[in-house]
C-alpha cells in the first residue's frame, strides 16, 4: 500500500465542501466541544474504494474502484476465499455452544472482516488515517452474540452493518486550523490517478469561500407514528405494573415518528447549528441517507496506547465512597436507588 498525503489550506466550511462532493458512498464525520460549541475535527470521505455489507452471518465485500479491486484481491488471499461475481463473500458460523460472555468475544464473527482490512496490509501506512474505514452498525448486529427476539422481515430491512474503505479522505483539524488530503493506493498503477484526485480536491477546497447555504424545501405535513397515543399509554401502564411486581426496576419505552426528509444536507446543517456535539455524522449510501448528532461517546479506544475509555451517559453518578476513598456500599446502594427513583 502507498500512502499519498497532500497538505491543504485550512478548510473552515467542511459542509460546504461536502455539498460539492455529495454522492453515494461518501460521508462526513464531525466533532465539536460540548461547552464552547467550537468545532474540533472533521473527516470527509470524498471517495470510497471498497464497500462491506453484513447480513446476519454473511459479509459481502465489493470494489467501487479499480484501486479497490486490487485491495479486494489482497483480501481474497488473506481470507483464503476466491472472488466470485466481482465480490468476496465471507460466511461466519455462530457457535451456540459457547455460553461464556468473555469467550464469545474471541469467536470468529463478521467483525473479523473489518479486522482483516487492517491485518491484510503488510506495509504500515505513513499516516494513521490513510487506511481508513467507517460505516454504521444496526442494533441487530448483537444477534450474532446474543439470542435476540426475531423481528418480522418487513420490520427489519436494514443491513447489520455497512462499511467503506476510503480512497480519498480529507482530515480537517479546526483547533490547529490545518487540513490534509489523503489517498490510499493499493497498486503503483493507480498512484498518478489518485494523486490527481487529491490535487483536484485541494483546488475545490480552495474555492470554498463561505459556509453551506441550506435549501428551503416544501414542508411535509404527513407524519406517521409506529404506535398511536392510546396503544402507547397501554404499554406504559403495563410496564408500571411490572415495576410494582418487582419484575423490572427500570424501562425505556419508545416509539418512532416518520416524516419525509426532502433536503437531508440542509436538515443536517440545522441539526449542527442547534445541537453541535462531540459526535455528528452524515452518511450517504446508494440506498439511504443517515445523519445525526449525539452529546455522548459510549466508548473510545486508542490503538497506540491500547486503552479504552468509557464515558458516563445520562443516568449515571459517581460511586458512593467514604472519606478514605473506599466504596461505601450503603451509600452506594442509596445513590443507585435515588437514580432509579429520579429517572
From TrEMBL:
Q: Where is the Chorismate-utilising enzyme C-terminal domain?
A: 229-324
Keywords on record: Lyase, Magnesium, Metal-binding
MF terms (GO), sorted A to Z: anthranilate synthase activity; metal ion binding
This entry's Enzyme Commission designation comes to 4.1.3.27
Which Gene3D superfamilies does the record match to this protein?
Answer: Anthranilate synthase
* Cofactor(s) of this protein: Mg(2+)
Alphabetically, which GO biological process terms does the record hold?
A: L-tryptophan biosynthetic process
Chain ranges of the Anthranilate synthase component I N-terminal domain? 14-178
The reaction(s) catalysed by this protein are: chorismate + L-glutamine = anthranilate + pyruvate + L-glutamate + H(+)
Record's protein name: anthranilate synthase
Q: Which gene encodes it?
A: trpE
Amino acid at each position: 500500500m502507498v500512502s499519498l498525503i497532500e497538505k491543504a489550506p485550512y478548510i473552515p466550511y467542511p459542509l460546504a465542501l461536502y455539498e460539492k462532493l455529495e454522492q453515494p458512498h461518501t460521508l462526513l464525520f464531525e466533532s465539536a466541544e460540548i461547552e464552547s460549541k467550537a468545532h474540533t475535527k472533521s473527516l470527509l470521505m470524498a471517495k470510497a474504494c471498497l464497500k462491506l455489507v453484513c447480513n446476519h452471518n454473511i459479509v459481502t465485500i465489493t470494489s467501487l474502484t479499480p484501486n479497490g479491486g486490487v485491495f479486494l484481491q489482497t483480501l481474497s488471499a488473506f481470507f483464503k476465499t476466491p472472488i466470485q461475481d466481482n465480490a468476496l463473500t465471507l460466511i461466519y458460523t455462530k457457535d451456540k455452544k459457547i455460553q461464556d460472555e468473555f469467550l464469545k468475544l474471541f469467536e470468529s464473527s463478521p467483525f473479523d472482516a473489518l479486522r482483516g482490512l487492517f491485518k491484510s496490509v503488510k506495509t504500515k501506512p505513513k499516516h494513521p488515517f490513510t487506511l481508513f474505514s467507517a460505516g454504521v452498525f444496526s442494533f441487530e448486529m448483537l444477534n450474532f452474540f446474543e439470542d435476540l427476539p426475531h423481528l418480522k422481515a418487513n420490520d427489519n430491512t436494514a443491513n447489520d452493518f455497512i462499511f467503506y474503505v476510503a480512497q480519498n479522505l480529507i482530515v480537517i483539524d479546526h483547533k490547529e486550523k490545518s487540513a490534509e488530503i489523503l489517498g490510499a493506493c493499493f497498486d503503483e498503477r493507480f498512484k498518478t490517478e489518485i494523486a490527481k484526485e487529491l490535487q483536484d480536491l485541494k483546488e475545490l477546497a480552495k474555492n470554498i469561500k463561505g459556509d453551506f447555504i441550506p435549501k428551503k424545501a416544501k414542508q411535509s405535513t404527513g407524519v406517521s407514528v409506529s404506535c398511536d397515543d392510546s396503544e402507547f399509554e397501554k404499554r406504559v401502564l403495563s410496564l408500571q405494573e411490572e415495576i410494582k411486581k418487582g419484575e423490572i426496576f427500570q424501562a425505556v419505552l419508545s416509539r418512532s415518528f416518520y416524516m419525509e426528509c426532502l433536503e437531508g444536507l440542509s436538515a443536517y446543517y440545522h441539526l449542527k447549528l442547534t445541537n453541535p456535539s462531540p459526535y455528528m455524522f452524515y452518511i450517504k449510501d446508494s440506498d439511504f441517507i443517515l445523519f445525526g448528532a449525539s452529546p455522548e461517546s459510549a466508548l473510545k479506544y486508542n490503538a497506540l496506547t491500547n486503552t479504552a475509555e468509557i464515558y458516563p451517559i445520562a443516568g449515571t453518578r459517581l460511586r458512593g465512597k467514604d472519606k478514605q476513598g473506599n466504596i461505601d456500599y450503603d451509600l452506594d446502594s442509596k445513590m443507585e436507588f435515588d437514580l432509579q427513583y429520579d429517572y
